[in-house]
From TrEMBL:
<dbReference type="Pfam" id="PF04828">
    <property type="entry name" value="GFA"/>
</dbReference>
<keyword id="KW-0862">Zinc</keyword>
<protein>
    <recommendedName>
        <fullName>CENP-V/GFA domain-containing protein</fullName>
    </recommendedName>
</protein>
<keyword id="KW-0456">Lyase</keyword>
<keyword id="KW-0479">Metal-binding</keyword>
<dbReference type="GO" id="GO:0016846">
    <property type="term" value="F:carbon-sulfur lyase activity"/>
</dbReference>
<dbReference type="InterPro" id="IPR006913">
    <property type="entry name" value="CENP-V/GFA"/>
</dbReference>
<feature type="domain" description="CENP-V/GFA">
    <location>
        <begin position="4"/>
        <end position="121"/>
    </location>
</feature>
<dbReference type="GO" id="GO:0046872">
    <property type="term" value="F:metal ion binding"/>
</dbReference>
<comment type="similarity">
    <text>Belongs to the Gfa family.</text>
</comment>
<dbReference type="InterPro" id="IPR011057">
    <property type="entry name" value="Mss4-like_sf"/>
</dbReference>
């Protein structure tokens, strides 16, 4: 297994996966656009039981386009979003790919919420797409 380790910008929050991610994807929903400040988020999913997270996180809760309650975990020192939790997917953590120590490990498989796609945002047209999640 490749080493899926990562951290926030200042290094106060760190994580390590003990198993391969379940899924890697891009999300074009409006919440992900706002969290990342661009047209999509790049995320991978890990089971919380296979993940070690150290450091203090603060969480902001919101209702997603699908109606699930999403908690966005971010570092209170540098403000960097690290991962999200969703009421629709208990036991799973959705990590932001750019927080990886080696972001080249991220290989997106799908694109979700293309209904919210922004015309200025380019996404690989060879990826499987879903209009919603």
């Amino acid at each position: 297994m490749s080493s899926f380790k990562g951290n926030c910008i200042c290094g106060s929050v760190q994580y390590e996966l003990k198993a391969e991610p379940q899924l890697s994807f891009l999300c074009q929903c409006r919440q992900c656009q706002r969290i990342t400040g661009t047209g999509h988020s790049a995320e991978f999913v890990a089971l919380s039981k296979n993940t070690i997270v150290s450091g203090e996180l603060k969480f902001y809760e919101m209702t997603s386009d699908s109606g699930n309650i999403v908690s966005s975990g971010f570092c209170p020192t540098c403000g960097n979003p690290v991962f999200k939790k969703s009421s629709g997917y208990p036991g799973m953590l959705f990590f932001h790919a750019a927080t990886l120590e080696n972001p080249s490990l991220f290989k997106p498989q799908k694109v979700f919420w293309t209904a919210s796609h922004q015309p200025w945002d380019f996404v690989n047209p060879n990826l499987e797409v879903k209009e919603h999640a």
